[in-house]
Design goal:
There is one protein chain. With 575 residues, the protein is α+β, with helices and mostly antiparallel strands. It is 38% helix and 14% strand. Strands 2-1-6-3-4-5 form a 6-stranded mixed β-sheet. Strand 7 and strand 8 form a beta hairpin. Helix 6 crosses helix 19 and helix 14 packs across helix 15. The two termini are 40 Å apart.
């Protein structure tokens, strides 16, 4: 009989105190994004200052984390966003979720704010609970220097979540980095400024030491084994999995180009003349011809069979950055008129080292270029602006606070944001279902909440987007609650006989689950998120794309974003 007893670990940063509590009944069948939403509605005053003592920073693994299901060991991090002013969940691969599951931490809730200044390392273990150590020697360091020091001190078997200088300076684009299976702090819970929330809690890093822990028990091992086999087979055989294994997320570069949907010149065009130089084929060719340590197929989590990540190295045989993803290629490449993967990779490394969201920073640089602060296509100018962020100058702090902050300061209208958060690398006037997701998701402009580019619809027809956006959003709410990568959906969707229900039933012994449990989890999650935002003061007016996108057409198609207000306002009426 297993003695595995999952609990809520609650940290008070002012008292430096840990309490371990039983899991409330209403939280037991939730994990990941769904549990973040439930905790936020239950415990956080939605009108609180995101960087004040009333906000909470929540870490929670998904429901299926801990079993090395391919692409399903992700960590969700959540709180009230300093960028959007609403609820925020950001998830990442790496080790953190897996370690938490082995430690029996159903959720880690970090509360209050510390007295005094300075940063701390919080070490969590089953043996000693919570231990606090000053981080004076780490303060101001980038994540690439901080992580090795922590690994040297605490051993290379731990998981680490940490912030960079951007989080310490409480910049609104700051994320939380997690080390991957190779101990590189490259897996960022990026969006919404949660790194600034962690900075407000006085934490430079959290170390998860799962020594003495155990794999979460399985109620029906044989049924779980069969369901896992079916799921893994579907993942391995799905043609999209093969594409992403070979080309990574950079495969999206040419696809968005075909739809006139790649951001170019601060979202003023949808096609990039030099797209072949920065696309998936070029990235793969570089990684293969340059040799090790470059690698076109790399897993961000142990046990992942898709391996959509990469290690991008230079001609000198040294790593430039890992990974180089499509979102960064779009926002820090074509969006800035930059046509060199090496340049994008170098800029990406610096943004990562600062612990910032490359989507938000890329969009901020695009607005800065519109304001005349840098020359289009100039690596030197882009790097100088990133250096300003590192210095924490007035300009740097504005850039670090994201695209909306830059637009406000320099009176720029063309700012690609919703709810204060930058759009990712999918042009909403060309892929209108994703634009509908941007407008309606409680998370701000975020493609991971419901990307529709693969839907079999006319992406330019404003009347054809309602069902595809809603379906994508419900599915993603479910996947994020399971702890599943967006690409795990290829396997889950292609597996017959309700594999999500089968896995959950076998894992927990829940025999009363509906066949459509994935979308039921998504519905529950989105309802809770919308309730939090309503309490925070959000209205229908916040569910809108920028006005300029409704009147300024994409040149290639002549289309504006014209999904009706009625569709936007009533998208979730029936969930």
């Amino acid at each position: 009989m297993s003695d595995y007893k999952p609990q809520i670990w609650r940290i008070n940063t002012r008292k430096q105190e840990l309490k371990r509590e039983p899991i409330p009944e209403a939280w037991q069948r939730l994990g990941g994004r769904g549990l973040v939403a439930r905790i936020m509605v239950d415990e956080v005053d939605a009108r609180c200052d995101p960087l004040g003592p009333g906000n909470k920073l929540i870490f929670t693994p998904g429901l299926l984390v801990g079993h090395m299901l391919s692409s399903t060991d992700r960590i969700s991090v959540g709180g009230k966003s300093p960028l959007t002013g609403g609820i925020k969940e950001a998830n990442a691969g790496g080790r953190t979720g897996y370690h938490m599951a082995f430690m029996g931490i159903h959720a880690l809730i970090i509360e209050d704010t510390p007295e005094g200044n300075g940063y701390w390392v919080l070490h969590l273990s089953l043996k000693n609970g919570a231990q606090w150590e000053r981080a004076d020697d780490l303060t101001g360091l980038g994540v690439y220097e901080t992580a090795p020091r922590l690994l040297e001190k605490y051993g290379d078997k731990v998981a680490i979540a940490l912030i960079g200088p951007g989080g310490e300076m409480k910049m609104k684009s700051a994320g939380i980095q997690n080390i991957d299976k190779d101990r590189v702090p490259a897996r960022i819970a990026a969006r919404g400024g949660l790194g600034a929330v962690m900075g407000s809690k006085g934490l430079k890093a959290i170390v998860f030491d799962n020594a003495g822990g155990q794999k979460p028990p399985i109620a029906d091992p044989e049924a779980f084994k069969i369901a896992q086999r079916d799921y893994t087979k579907s993942v391995m055989e799905h043609p999209q999995s093969i594409t992403y294994r070979d080309y990574g997320t950079a495969a999206m570069t040419q696809l968005t180009q075909r739809f006139a949907g790649i951001p170019v010149h601060n979202f003023s065009r949808g096609t990039f003349d030099e797209v072949e130089k920065i696309g998936g084929e070029s990235l793969r060719d570089f990684t293969l011809t340059r040799g090790k340590p470059s690698d076109p197929s790399h897993a961000c989590m142990a046990g992942c069979t898709i391996k959509c990540s990469n290690i991008f190295g230079g001609e000198d045989g040294k790593i430039i950055v890992s990974p180089l993803e499509y979102e960064t290629i779009g926002l820090m490449g074509s969006n800035l008129d930059i046509d060199s993967l090496d340049t994008i990779g170098r800029l990406n490394w610096h943004v990562n080292d600062l612990g910032l969201d490359s989507i938000e920073v890329g969009a901020a640089l695009g607005v800065a270029a519109e304001a005349g602060l840098m020359k289009w296509g100039s690596e030197d100018d882009a790097q100088k602006l990133i250096d300003e962020i590192r210095k924490g100058s007035e300009l740097g702090r504005t850039l670090g606070d994201g695209a909306a902050a830059v637009g406000k300061k320099y009176n720029i209208e063309r700012v690609p944001v919703v709810k204060g958060q930058a759009m990712s690398a999918y042009e909403p006037r060309s892929i209108k279902g994703t634009g509908l997701t941007y407008a309606t998701t409680p998370q701000g402009a975020d493609h991971t909440c419901g990307l529709t580019i693969r839907a079999q619809v006319d992406h330019l027809d404003p009347d054809a987007q309602k069902s595809v956006s809603l379906n994508a959003q419900l599915n993603m709410g479910g996947y994020d609650t399971l702890g599943a990568c967006i690409f795990a959906g290829f396997g889950y969707a292609a597996t017959p006989d309700g594999v999500v229900r089968r896995l959950l039933s076998a894992r927990y012994g829940w025999n009363d689950l509906p066949d459509n449990i994935l979308q039921e989890l998504g519905k529950q999650t989105i309802k809770l998120e919308r309730e939090f935002n309503k309490r925070a003061g959000f209205t229908e007016k916040d569910d809108r794309l920028p006005e300029w996108m409704t009147r300024e057409p994409i040149p290639e198609t002549g289309h504006v974003f014209d999904v009706s207000a009625d569709t936007i306002d009533h998208l979730f009426d029936d969930i």
